[in-house]
Amino acid sequence: MIRVLTLDLVDDAAAIAEYERWHTPGNVPAPVLAAIRASGVAEMQIFRTGTRLVMTMTVPPGFDPAAKADADAADPQVAEWEARMGEFQRALPAAPAGSRWTPMTPIFTLSDHP
Q1: How confident is the model over 67-107, as pLDDT tens digits?
Q2: Dist. CA 11–CA 73, nearest whole Å
Q3: Which of 74, 45, 75, 79 is nearest to 59 (CA)?
Q4: Nearest-angstrom CA–CA distance, 89 and 15
């Protein structure tokens, strides 16, 4: 199953470059990567156009985003990472309360069509 989420970055070229630098191989802390994988996320990608980010996550059926959020909040290293990234991120107006990433609702899947 693929989950898709979105948010915006601050509208500042230097901040965007710094955010992207944090996401290059070797810059994401190992405990953060381990927590993502331990939650059941098999693959994650983040795409950017302008200030808009779109994240895809390949997760197993029954993946519980609330449980992942709770586990992340309880892990000091993940919480530190989230706070650092929060300096660059801006929630969309439709974001759930207390969340920066906004889930997107699928509306079209090619394989559903003959």
Answers
A1: 999 999 999 999 999 999 999 999 999 999 889 999 999 99
A2: 27
A3: 45
A4: 10
Residue found under tokens 């559903």: 112
Which is it for strands 89-90 and 2-9: parallel, antiparallel or unpaired? antiparallel
**Per-residue pLDDT reduced to its tens digit, 20-46:** 999 999 999 999 999 999 999 999 999
CA distances from 96 to 6, 80, 114 (A): 12, 21, 35
Residue where the block lists tokens 């519980």: 64
Under 8 Å between Cβ of 103 and 3:
yes
The CA distance from 48 to 23, in Å, is 12
Q: How many residues does the chain have?
A: 114
Quickly list DSSP for 4-22: EEEEEE-S-HHHHHHHHHH
